[in-house]
Design a protein that fits this description.
Blueprint: H1 2-33, E1 38-44, E2 50-56, H2 78-85, H3 93-99, E3 103-105, H4 112-117, H5 119-125, E4 131-133, H6 135-139, H7 143-147, H8 153-173, H9 178-192, H10 198-219, H11 226-234
Parallel strand pairs: 3-4
Antiparallel strand pairs: 1-2
Helix pairs in contact: 1-2, 1-3, 5-8, 10-11
Length: about 240
């Protein structure tokens, strides 16, 4: 009950606070694409009940492609790249939190087919509401950059990233409190705004690149040189 009250109050406040930013982003999206700025997608919620998750549109409508966004995707618009970079496209999900579909902190809601593929894990995780962020989300806040460095993004996503995320989310749920949720929210802000914490951002970037290097070793890919590693870190 305390967690739900915390979610409802803070999400409602943030929804009102960020409404002007969302409105400006929506206008820019419509000017660039000519499509509706809002995008709804079916995701799996608590108790394996589906709900419609809301985002700002970052891809051009009507183009064929994978349901998963893995690495560089030609469907992503110029504006959409920036919205994704700072997770501004996720702000409409504050409405999902207010409605009770989601929590501020919890395992990220995924497509129904992924929950079936990893059902034993999600039977535990979906006992709670999915969330906007959690420790797994913080660790993989640069997931797209990691996947762009591996030879087979889909294979690496399902074989390495998803199991690691599930383990991290499961471990957090077992010890989660409102106080720890506040800490995770603060960590998320720092991860998304590296200018506020340049050393932490650089460390996170190096960890992301090292994950990708290990992936290349596992898949037999060519390992990047030290200069390439430095270039990748410098991009953040």
């Amino acid at each position: 009950m305390l967690k739900r009250s915390f979610d409802f109050t803070l999400a409602g406040f943030l929804l009102v606070l960020t409404l002007p930013l969302v409105a400006i982003a929506a206008l820019v999206i419509q000017l660039e694409t000519g499509d509706s700025a809002m995008f709804g997608q079916c995701r799996m919620g608590r108790g394996f009940k589906t709900f419609k998750l809301w985002k700002l549109r970052t891809m051009r409508a009507g183009l064929a492609g994978s349901a998963f966004t893995l690495g560089a995707d030609p469907r992503i618009t110029h504006v959409g790249w920036w919205l994704r970079r700072f997770k501004i496209d996720e702000l409409p999900q504050l409405w999902n939190v207010v409605r009770g579909d989601m929590s501020l902190v919890g395992p990220r809601p995924v497509l129904p087919e992924l929950t079936q593929e990893f059902r034993p894990h999600y039977e535990r995780l979906l006992a709670a509401r999915p969330g906007l962020t959690d420790p797994a989300t913080v660790k993989y806040c640069r997931e797209v950059e990691i996947l762009s460095l591996v030879l087979d993004p889909l294979d690496y996503f399902k074989r390495v990233i998803v199991p690691d995320k599930l383990n991290i989310s499961d471990a957090y749920l077992q010890r989660a409190t409102v106080q720890s949720d506040v800490v995770v929210l603060m960590q998320t802000v720092i991860a998304l705004l590296p200018s506020l914490a340049p050393f932490a951002a650089r460390k996170a970037a190096m960890e992301a690149v090292l994950v990708a290097v290990n992936a290349r070793r596992m898949t037999g890919g060519v390992q990047p040189s030290h200069s390439q590693l430095s270039m990748e870190v410098g991009k953040t």
